[in-house]
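Team,

Forwarding the record for the chain on the shared tracking sheet. I've put the sequence and predicted structure together so nobody has to dig through attachments.
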Amino acid sequence: MRIARVRYDGTNVYYHVCNRVGGTRKDRVFDDVAKEKLVSIAKNLTTFFSVDVISFAVLSNHYHAVLSASGELPNREEAARRYEAYYGESRPTPMWELDEIYFKHAERMSDFSCFMKDLQQHFTNWFNRSRPVRRRGRLWADRFKSVVLEDGPALWQCVEYVEMN
């Protein structure tokens, strides 16, 4: 049975996250184009989410990242700016003056798990559409793994580990 992730509200938290694709060790999903696409999706999602990518490494069948999540809700102006920057004119502008709408979007923007879900879901959608032969089954082997990092030596050792990959 899966256990809910611990949420840290109101504090800046660093995470080491990773996940691998399903299949055998010989399955090499991440060619150069797929690597660039995963990084591009992560960069694009940071316009909406209040999550910063500190370090990112994509290997042939898995990825590692060090992320910083503030845990604070963006104010109404920041939420509106992030929403507009991400969606542009493709969606109608929410009524930010309504508390229920503001809190719904602001909580999502500050949720690191939603960032990770969107990252993997957007990549999976792109990956499945870009293959000439339809694949079957899940792309990711399991849920993404995350470890909370303390600020200081632990954070920088993990960043060094990710960068050395």
